[in-house]
Amino acid sequence: MLLELFTNTDALHKDQNGVISPINQFIISYPMRQKLFLKYTSIILVVIGLFLLIAPKQWFPDFYKPVFMGIVALLSPALIYLPKFILKKSNPVKRALILEMRSVIAFSLAINIAGELGLFQLYKYGFQYDKFAHFIVSMLFAFILGESLKEWEHFTPKKVAWLVFLIVFSSGLLWEFFEATSDLLFKTQEWGAYGKNITWDTLGDIAFNALGILSGIIISKIPKRRRR
């Protein structure tokens, strides 16, 4: 993560004419790019949600649950903005972390809604998009949670690693419970592969969650200089 550069532009290298290089110009503009990503992701989620709720049901494939999907899409932007209001941003590093945390949430929601809209169906063609999503989302959350615990709580690296694994892994289990509850209450097909192969699919989800978490922890242990 480039937090040190994002929060200290004096550290950016300039050429002999005092001109900032293109890569460093990108670094300077990165927070603004993140904010634009958050803004447009939220707008797209709201538009998708409204369309799913308003459009005739016959417009959608059989595996769609338009009302449920629409409500989830409409509520998703609130999750993107939640860290902004509940976390203290007393210094530039914490402000940058909160922005990255919100970006991780937005990206994860985008991956999930893309799956619900049809990409989960790629399993029929040999690509397990669902497992890809579990791995990527778990890795991103493990990484950003680890960085946040270091900054806010100043835990030791070993304690951070154990806490990250426990929190993110438990969250993955809760997600499986949410899918099962959704199927029971709202007659969706979230658990398993559209309600099929529930046991093996759930075990696969948990395994890819664990692999993602371990990857995120490993990446967070790479010295910042080597990540640049």
Profile the largest sheet. none
Low-confidence stretches: 9-15, 19-27
Distance between the termini: 7 Å
- The coarse silhouette is globular
- Write down the overall mean pLDDT: 85
Q: Report the order of strands and helices.
A: HHHHHHHH
| Structural class by secondary-structure content | mainly alpha
Beta-strand proportion: under 5%
Q: What is the helix content?
A: over 70%
Q: Can you tell me about this structure?
A:
- This protein has 228 residues and is mainly α.
- It has a domain at 118-228.
- Helix content is 72%, strand content 0%.
- Helix 2 crosses helix 4 (92-116), helix 4 (92-116) runs antiparallel to helix 5 (129-152) and helix 5 crosses helix 6.
- The longest helix is centred in the N-terminal third of the chain and has 33 residues, at 22-54.
- It starts with a helix and ends with a helix.
- The model is unreliable at 9-15 and 19-27 (pLDDT under 50).
